[in-house]
Amino acid sequence: MEFIVDAQNIRKSVKSKNKNQPDIKILRDVNFQATAGEFVSILGPSGSGKTTLLRCISGLTRPTSGQVTIAGKSLGTSSERQLARLRRTTISYIFQSYNLLPALPAYDNIVLPLRLSHQKINRHDVKKLMDDFNFQAALSQYPAELSGGEQQKVAIARALMMHAQVIFADEPTGALDSLSRQLIFSKLRELTKFGVCVVMVTHDIEQASQTDRSLILRDGRLVQEFTHPSEQTLLEAMHLAEKVSS
Ligand SMILES: Nc1ncnc2c1ncn2[C@@H]1O[C@H](COP(=O)(O)OP(=O)(O)OP(=O)(O)O)[C@@H](O)[C@H]1O
């Protein structure tokens, strides 16, 4: 099978603040694969390494060891320039903390990646996407003037405008009300129908149960995998992971 994301034996360690302590192992030998058009969710207790895993398999962070290939390109052997190109053309990343530029209005934040990669900007498309997301504020408003949920919608729109082949989303609907959560989830689901691969970290078991595959991370290891999981199955798996998590 052809994988659009193929990560093998990913380990990530960081130096402990206390020099006498050994390195902290955040990820321990994780293998992760996903295909075009697949919607994969990653769940796990707080601190289990979900964000670190997403950053490593998307090329935002270099793993301590292991290989990541995205759309046939090996990230380990790519130069910073090649990685930057891959991030511009193939990958989108929705940050948990939004990462909006405070000096730019919502609209300019959304189209910034298009501007940076000299792509055509269609104001109508931006407006339509934000209407689909039920965005209540004005696109001329600055991030500081927006609620957390509205900032999150801007961050998601910025990622989707790039028409990437792979979208990595770190808790994309965390700050949203239930209607907005559903709207964003439906949009991501729709993109997978066009062959986009979505890899989403979430605490939302109901949403995860609507993805194609769910992976449970515990103490830096992928410990369980469910294809077309039910809410009940995921609840039980998370309960177990939280109980035995060190
Ligand atoms: N640069 C770093 N230096 C030291 N420790 C780190 C670093 N990055 C992450 N960690 C630690 O590694 C563990 C995993 O962090 P990570 O953010 O990946 O977990 P998570 O599962 O996404 O957590 P949450 O659900 O709370 O967002 C945590 O204990 C965190 O404190």
From TrEMBL:
TM region(s), chain numbering: none
Region forming the signal peptide: none
Keywords per UniProt: ATP-binding, Nucleotide-binding, Transport
Residue stretches making up the ABC transporter domain: 5-244
Cited PROSITE patterns: ABC_TRANSPORTER_1, ABC_TRANSPORTER_2
Keyword Nucleotide-binding: yes
CDD domains the record matches: ABC_MJ0796_LolCDE_FtsE
Protein name, as recorded: ABC transporter ATP-binding protein
